[in-house]
Write a structure and sequence with these properties.
Strand content: 15-25%
Low-confidence stretches: 279-292
Number of helices: 10
Order of helices and strands: HHHEEHEHEHEEEHEHEHEEH
CATH topology of the largest domain: D-Maltodextrin-Binding Protein, domain 2
Distance between the termini: 34 Å
Helix content: 40-55%
Largest sheet: 9 strands, mixed
CATH superfamily of the largest domain: Periplasmic binding protein-like II
Structural class: alpha/beta
CATH architecture of the largest domain: 3-Layer(aba) Sandwich
Length: 292
């Protein structure tokens, strides 16, 4: 069976619709439909109930879901094992939002490369749906994100809290004037809407914090960004906190498969936790993080 069919099946099951799966896979809806139809013909049974609301799994689809995930994970693991660079004993794929790589996970990546030079590391940027799908497929070993979804066989570990603060470069205290809305995910949207229920839609919105910050620094305006990111810019006088503005807290989660290779993955988890806690000298030591 073509693993692309199994991967497409898992995307539809997660998204709840063929349209959503097409967006996640960056293919057309007709391509998704063709793949699912081919898979159903191979298995000899319908896997989804199609309706205007989307697509829901049939009983056969629910039974196949576990096998599809196992199939994709097995193929990915085989690809990792067979395709190891010379001198590497193992490989891992790490994924996170670009805003979490910047100023947080990059230190972790450097620590891993120094402490575990015989492990091949692939670092990826993605949003929560893509990261979750990668974890479900078995393509990603560890992901760090703001709003994960609970899924069977995935462990969610609270890592830290991200403080988002309103900063400005123009001296405008009104967040509606030159305000750039940065989409930090559904949790931020809920908190933001509750704090600013009457705020008109921003004339500029971005889905990557780096882009919004570059715009404000270059052309003026205001927006919400992680305090750890803007603290040096505030100290340098390029930005300033907006007095009296609401602050938002987003939990940061580390997500990994429950059936991970503990000897490989757990030291990495310990290393990241140490860096987040401020102990930059700590590296992977083989300590067991318990039931994380």
């Amino acid at each position: 069976m073509d693993t692309e069919l199994a991967r497409t099946f898992l995307s539809v099951a997660t998204a709840g619709s063929f349209v959503g799966a097409a967006e996640r896979l960056h293919v057309t809806q007709s391509t998704v439909s063709t793949r699912i139809r081919t898979l159903e013909e191979l298995l000899g049974c319908p896997l989804f109930i199609r309706n205007k609301a989307g697509a829901t799994l049939t009983d056969a689809g629910r039974r196949f879901q576990r096998h599809a995930a196992m199939l994709v994970r097995t193929v990915e693991q085989a690809r990792h094992d067979v395709g190891l660079p010379r001198g590497a004993r193992a490989s891992v794929v790490l994924g996170a939002r670009i805003g979490l790589w910047d100023g947080l996970l990059l230190d972790w990546l450097a620590t891993l490369r120094h402490a575990m030079p015989d492990v091949s590391v692939r670092a990826e940027i993605g949003f929560e749906p893509d990261l979750m799908q990668g974890l479900i497929d078995g393509r990603i070993d560890i992901a760090v994100m703001y709003t994960p979804q609970r899924r069977p066989n995935l462990d969610l570990v609270p890592l830290t809290d991200e403080r988002l603060v309103l900063v400005e470069s123009t001296g405008t205290a009104d967040p509606g004037a030159g305000y750039v809305y940065v989409d930090w995910g559904p949790e931020f949207y809920a908190q933001h809407s509750a704090s600013y229920p009457d705020l008109p839609a921003a004339s500029l919105s971005v889905n990557v914090g780096w882009l919004g910050l570059r715009h404000i620094l270059g052309g003026g305006g205001s927006g919400y960004f992680p305090l750890r990111t803007v603290r040096p810019l505030i100290a340098a006088g390029r930005l300033r906190r907006v007095a009296g503005a609401a602050e938002f807290v987003l939990p940061v989660w580390l997500v990994h498969p429950a059936d991970r290779d503990r000897a490989l993955i757990d030291p990495m988890i310990v290393s990241l936790a140490a860096i987040v806690a401020g102990d930059e000298t700590a590296g992977p030591s083989g300590a067991d993080p318990g039931n994380q």
